[in-house]
Amino acid sequence: DGKQNDLQSLQSLERLQSLESLQRLQRLQSLQSLQSLERLQSLQSLNMSYDEIEIKPDSVVYCDIPYRNTNDYGMDFDYEKFYAWAESQRELVVISEYSMPEDRFTCVAKIKHTSTLCSIKTNTVQEKLFVPVHQKSMFFENKSQEQLFNYDDL
Q1: Report field, pTM of the whole predicted structure over 0.70
Q2: Closest residue by Cα to residue 145 from 120, 108, 92
Q3: Which of 40, 52, 84, 135 could disulfide-pair with 131, CB 3.0 to 4.6 Å?
Q4: pLDDT per residue over 2-36, tens digit each?
């Protein structure tokens, strides 16, 4: 009878420890969610010319430029001027595009999806995210191309 009580006490203790571990995990997840929300609150979305923006230290700049050789956006976009600007930045500049000059920019992510821009047909496209070549070593140190983001399976 004493062994049975010891066994029950041990099982109760194990359940209590499991419950405490689960509660710690839930608190950690809540803290991580809160930290993610705080980071989102510091995001600033701007819709203006890239060369008019004051870029603060430790920023990440995401540029969704007019894709080269696609539909006319109703504007002239000076790609060479933009490339020179992106290469001159100290903060991380991530550019969404189908292709970029390989000697100046490195692809860090590939995202396949179905394009729905045309109302009469859909086609699969592979958008890519690029960074200036010099920024790859600054921000993606010790990572091979395969270790960088790849969303082909989505």
Answers
A1: no
A2: 108
A3: 135
A4: 777 877 777 877 777 777 666 666 666 666 665 56
